[in-house]
Amino acid sequence: MLILRKYLETCGCEPDLIALIRVIARQMETIRKAFLENQTFEKTQNPSGELQTQMDVWADEHLIKVIGESGLVRELASEEQADIVRFENSRTEYCVVMDPLDGSSLISTNLAVGTIVGIYDSGGVLQPGSKLRAAFYTLFGPLTVLVVSVGKGVQSFAWDQENEHYLLLRTGITVPEGKQYGTGGLRKEWLPEHIKVIDYFDENGFKIRYSGSFVADCHQLLTYGGIYSYPGSKKNPDGKLRLLFEANPLGFIITQAGGRITDGKRNILDIVPEKQHQTTPIYIGSKGIIEKIEEIFSSSSIF
Ligand code: AFP
Questions:
Q1: Whose CA is nearest to atom 13 of ligand 1?
Q2: What is the atom index within ligand 1 of the atom nearest the CA of 99?
Q3: Does the N terminus or the C terminus of the chain have fewer Cβ atoms within 10 A?
Q4: d(CA 103, ligand 1 centre) in Å
Q5: What radius of gyration do the chain's Cα atoms show?
Q6: Coil, strand or helix: which one is 103?
Q7: In a shared domain, residues 137 and 16
Q8: What domain range includes position 287?
Q9: Is the Cα dihedral 110, 144, 276, 213 positive or negative?
Q10: For the segment 128-148, what is each residue's pLDDT rounded down to a tens digit?
């Protein structure tokens, strides 16, 4: 059976990129084991003002240490770090963006959470998602699953504990045109365009799926299609989700799988980030549904 390393080699990835993806991917069992002893909330807040869990902090510190020691990354931006981290002794120019533990409010309920990573060839972390060289995420469900794209479609792998490697699960994954949706935010704070989008779903027989873990909610798009959304609101017109750490890596992967990502008006992957913790409204999923959402947004702006 095909393993992750062999797959990356067949894609023509350079040895350093393969080494970087593998070194991060191999930390997932270590992170998984750490859940048992790190079950509480820290008293600290992350740079977006959210209460950190002990695991957010643990996974962040662990990954930064391993990535720094690898000598494979020049620059790193993490959702849990206020500033960009630079590694002066790196022997490559790769730049990494990451959410060490996405969906962490679900740790205490034992629902699925994961790690999100994006890799740029060089040039710093403040680049549009379309320039990503590779992106992957892992999901801690019944299996530890890794979904990766190096710009040649999307594949998923599962961690084989006994043999200590990732085994191919699905190849050439595509996002079907499904009929399910998930949306975050408070209904009373939704903007008129978003209300119209939700009305459209309700009138057209869509059913609701929303867990509160972006990475898990996006993962199901690869099987069932539909969309995940976290809209801009009256209080936060720029939404909640982070452009660098959440929207771009997942947007890259879903786009590679034939889906799309938008903020309602434009492809999120085209946005040039102005700051590290920038947020964006987000709609991600099946291509046809995203087109419909953009149509609803553009017709709403006429009035
Ligand atoms: P973090 O766990 O990395 O802070 O991310 C949480 C998140 O950005 C995303 O994973 C969820 O879909 C969303 O927030 C959930 O937000 P609500 O709790 O407001 O629904």
A1: 212
A2: 3
A3: C
A4: 5
A5: 18
A6: coil
A7: yes
A8: 180-298
A9: negative
A10: 999 999 999 999 999 999 999
